[in-house]
Amino acid sequence: MKAVLQHIAVREARFASHPFFSDLRMDRPIEQVMAFAPRLTFWVMTFQDVLRLNAHFIQDAHLKALATRHHAEEGGHDQWFEDDIAALTGGSLSIGAMYGKAHVKTRDAAYAIISEVYRPVDDRLRIVLLWALESTSHVFFGRTAVISAAQGADERLKYFSDHHMQAEAQHAMFEQELAAELEAMELSPEVRADALAMVDRIYTAFDTMFDGLRIHLERERAEEPAAAHQAPPPRVAAMEEDVDLDMEVEIVDVELLEDDEAPRARDVAVHRAA
């Protein structure tokens, strides 16, 4: 299992270097800095079911108790998130918006992660899954807590502030217990290979999610005054959301509009996979 934990540490460090984190800027109001936050909604809501179902499928009584305890300690964090979104935006996200185009990468990532729960795997890999999820959260919340504190928003926010980090710190003893359990596990080569592949899939899903979140940051920079940065035309900005650069250009009869609007018939150039 040590090889698996080392691999998680490597992937965590790589995730911490995702361009999303370096693109966050603190030289503007917290509402603007955190404007990407609503796009996390689908994942935050799905996360609670990931923990619940993961614990449900574990057969080993001891490991099941660990996973159940972990789920219980994460309870209520989704309400913190909803409260923070209300504080940041003055309202809540509609279901229609959550299933709109702007949130597609978050949904894709959430589906990929929850699919891991339904794989018929060794119970020990379900504990590895929890550890991988914890490692990504440490990176993300470590960054948002710094932003919240720098903006003097710790009294307004819980999910994105040091309040969340303090809650996690209170679970430190449990995390130490979980780490000890993992380190003591001996995995066969086949199970170890499955664990490593699962960790890679989880981090790939998070890379996808944060690629989507980064689109908002890129759009903000594009909308800065022309003297600082020339903004692209709205049609181009809208098209960029789902474009990969290494693709061929093809003419199709559709125009991508703002995030959650329906397509409108018109010949425009878009990128389609070669």
Automatic annotation (TrEMBL):
What SUPFAM superfamilies does its record include?
Heme oxygenase-like
> What domain of life is recorded for the organism?
Bacteria
Return the protein name: Thiaminase-2/PQQC domain-containing protein
